[in-house]
Design goal:
The chain has 374 residues and is α/β, with parallel strands linked by helices. It has 15 helices and 13 strands. Helices cover 44% and strands 17% of the residues. Helix 1 packs across helix 15 and helix 11 packs across helix 14.
Length: 374
Amino acid sequence: MTQKLLLSNENNIMKIGIDATPLAIPIPCGSRNYAENLIKNLAKIDLKNTYYLFSINKINIPNQKNFIFVQIPKVIPILKDQLIMPYLAKKAHLDVFHYLHPFGSVFYKHPAIVTTVLDVDLGKTYPLISRFFFNRITCVIERHFVFKYTKEFISISNTVRNELRNFIGHKYYKIIKNVYLGIDNNCVFSKKLNTSKKYFLAMADFASRKNIRTIINAYALLPNEIRRKHSLRIISSTLSSAKKFQQLSKDANITPNTKISVNVSKSRLVTYYNDALAFVYPSLYEGFGLPILEAMACGCPVITSNYGAMKEVSGGAAILVNPLSVKSLFEGMTKIATDIKLQNALREKGLKRASLFSWEKTARETLSVYKSLQ
């Protein structure tokens, strides 16, 4: 049952509202992962302030007194987002309101809105939304007003911060705080090395930016000896995407060497990272690239793109390739498959790089942003 809204603010206790709708996204994705881990770790570090989590669906929230679920009535979606959630948020007399992604009400003008920007290019990140005119226009309008009313932004990388600065231009000055994402504590290195059976691991979803076609074509160029020893395993977030990857593998004549898994659990993903020869992630666009760090934390060498957030996040601990070049990726995969010293060096560098990131650190820096608006 939804707890009653607290209407008092005593002893400098902040009342923080969070648009928790990303928690209800049905498939694994960056927005849901960010929401889950941020909220879980805010609960871990903050027993003082009161958090109101707004969502139309029943969601899992921390089981402690200072976290309150506020259910939005199930009505027409546009009314839910634009009118009802703002009404409930105003009723709670919040000190801060946090959008976990930059889409919300065009009417809610709270003086202390914090907005997290995971990425800026909607066409690359949300191709299905961008394909439909009404959805695209709705997202553009919502984002415009959310940006306009935002008091302080949280960007998840320097790459996003620079894109955001260019996007909002000089129309209005905004503070942009860079807060890196963290790594799940379950992402650990098992230290069970078996190089004779390891595979290349790739990850993709419905978005073409994940660049699976290039991965498949580069793998197909590898010598038979390498392909017999190291298969290609692709993790897909949806069944429809998996079918497309199967066809691409068939077209490249590598079906016997390709294994595709759909919507795997976090524990299974950690096993895949640990058992992989290398994680191949030549994405064309990312706001952060969290799988890069997850793989590194599991002792898996990484091959990724030589620009943007991928280069930034990998921090010199990965093989960098031109994601637009099949040849460049082929050369990177060949190096990692034939050079054990390189494998070990990248494993050690990756573990050190990953140790610099944690969700608790993300939560503490986010809480610091809330406090700065008091």
